Structures are given as structure tokens and as C-alpha cells.
């Protein structure tokens, strides 16, 4: 299952492959996916990504002919928050090489078209249009260290910390982005 570092690398990948690339049209969802449709369409838009713990947020920003962000009523930016499940990942491919398990696709404006796809073989991953970071998750252990440390130290008296450390480390309220393999590495060292 992808954890904090892998989701951060996914956001770095999206930012790298989408830098300077114009996307166009509607966001397409596969028929087999149980996640919601993404009600977004624009003649031209940019995609950027950010990660926080076990979530990745894609920001779709409509742009005008001059390449600058559009602020008109019709074209509003949208954030989509992804949780990767067991095997989710992003992949940029040529349109005719789209992966079999691409469940959400963003098409480029260029010819020949390329596609940024959310690929999830096991279909445990989800996305949420107009999404925000989950409020019940703590600060990111990688990028919000001061807040993370303060969150843990100020709550050491909570009942959650009466449990064995191997269970506490999986509590996303305190250790956002930590999963089984990071827990094993932390406890081993």
C-alpha cells in the first residue's frame, strides 16, 4: 500500500510530467470505477499536484489563450483528492497506450494526444472532486514536522497512546502517512 513517501513521489511525478503541458476537455472516468464522476471540463487547463500523508491533491486550473489562469464564472478551478488504496499510481502515456486499469483520465490538448491516468489494478483507490484533505488526519510527518511533533506531544495523554506502539503508529490522527512497512522500519531501527 503506498504510504507518505510514495504519494509524495507521485505528486512530484505529476508536477514533472505536467509542467508546461496544456490539458483540454472533460475528465473521463472508466465505466467500472465506483468513484464519482468529475464534473470538470475546460478548453485548456493546467494540472499541479501536492501530497499530504496518504493523500494526493490534483489541482485543475483553467487557463486562457495567454496561458494565465482564468477567473471567469464558467471556468472554476477544481481540486481532486486521491487516496491510492493498495496499488494506485499516476501514469502519463500516449493516448493509444493507455493502461488497461486507467480509471480517471486527463487528456492533453497537443497532437498526438497524451493522457495522464490514475491507474489502479485492484480498484481500492478513490478520488473526491472538490475534495479537501481529510480533517481527521494529523499533520504530515514529512512536511509539517513542527505541527506533527506538537500534535503528538500535546496528546500523549489520549487513550490512543495506551495501546502498543505498533498500533499507535498506524493511527492517522497522529501519524499521517505511516503504514505497515514504515511502522516495521521505525520499530526495527
3D architecture notes:
The protein has two domains: 4-129, N-terminal domain of MutM-like DNA repair proteins (Alpha-Beta Barrel), CATH 3.20.190; 145-188, no CATH class. By secondary structure, the chain is of the alpha+beta class. Helix content is 20%, strand content 29%. The strands form two sheets. A five-stranded antiparallel β-sheet has the order 1-3-4-5-9. It starts with a helix and ends with a helix. GO terms for molecular function: DNA N-glycosylase activity; DNA-(apurinic or apyrimidinic site) endonuclease activity; nucleic acid binding; zinc ion binding. Residues 2-125 form the Formamidopyrimidine-DNA glycosylase catalytic domain. It holds the Pfam family Fapy_DNA_glyco. This is Formamidopyrimidine-DNA glycosylase catalytic domain-containing protein. One of its GO terms (biological process) is base-excision repair.
Brief synopsis:
The chain has helices at residues 4-18, 145-153, 165-168, 180-188; strands at residues 23-26, 28-29, 41-52, 55-62, 78-83, 89-94, 102-107, 114-119, 126-129.
Percentage of β-strand residues = 25-35%
**Class derived from helix and strand content:** alpha+beta
Order of helices and strands: HEEEEEEEEEHHH
CATH topology type of the largest domain: N-terminal domain of MutM-like DNA repair proteins
**CATH class identity of the largest domain:** Alpha Beta
- Can you tell me the number of structural domains? 2
Total beta strand runs: 9
Q: In oligomeric terms, what are we looking at?
A: single chain
Amino- and carboxy-terminal Cα gap: 21 Å
CATH homologous group name of the largest domain: MutM-like, N-terminal
User: How large is the radius of gyration?
Assistant: 18 Å
| Apparent shape | elongated
Which sheet architecture does the biggest sheet show?
5 strands, antiparallel
Q: What average pLDDT do the residues reach?
A: 92
Number of separate helices? 4
Low confidence ranges: none
DSSP helix fraction: 10-25%
CATH architecture of the largest domain: Alpha-Beta Barrel
**How are the strands of the biggest sheet laid out side by side?**
1-3-4-5-9
Amino acid at each position: 500500500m503506498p504510504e507518505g513517501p510514495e504519494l509524495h513521489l507521485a505528486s512530484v511525478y505529476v508536477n514533472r510530467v505536467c509542467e508546461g503541458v496544456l490539458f483540454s476537455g472533460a475528465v473521463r472516468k472508466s465505466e467500472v470505477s465506483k468513484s464519482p464522476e468529475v464534473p470538470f471540463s475546460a478548453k485548456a487547463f493546467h494540472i499541479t499536484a501536492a501530497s499530504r500523508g496518504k493523500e494526493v491533491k490534483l489541482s485543475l486550473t483553467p487557463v486562457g489563450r495567454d496561458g494565465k489562469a482564468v477567473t471567469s464564472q464558467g471556468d472554476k478551478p477544481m481540486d481532486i483528492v486521491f487516496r491510492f488504496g493498495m496499488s494506485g499510481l499516476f501514469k502519463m502515456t500516449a493516448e493509444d497506450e493507455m493502461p488497461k486499469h486507467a480509471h480517471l483520465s486527463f487528456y492533453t490538448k497537443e497532437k498526438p494526444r497524451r493522457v495522464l491516468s490514475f491507474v489502479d489494478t485492484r480498484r481500492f483507490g478513490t478520488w473526491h472532486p472538490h475534495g479537501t484533505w481529510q480533517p481527521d488526519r494529523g499533520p504530515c510527518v514529512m512536511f509539517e514536522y513542527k505541527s506533527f511533533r506538537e500534535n503528538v506531544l500535546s496528546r500523549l495523554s489520549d487513550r490512543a497512546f495506551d495501546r502498543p506502539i505498533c498500533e499507535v503508529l498506524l493511527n492517522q490522527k497522529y501519524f499521517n502517512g505511516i503504514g505497515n512497512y514504515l511502522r516495521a522500519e521505525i520499530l526495527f531501527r
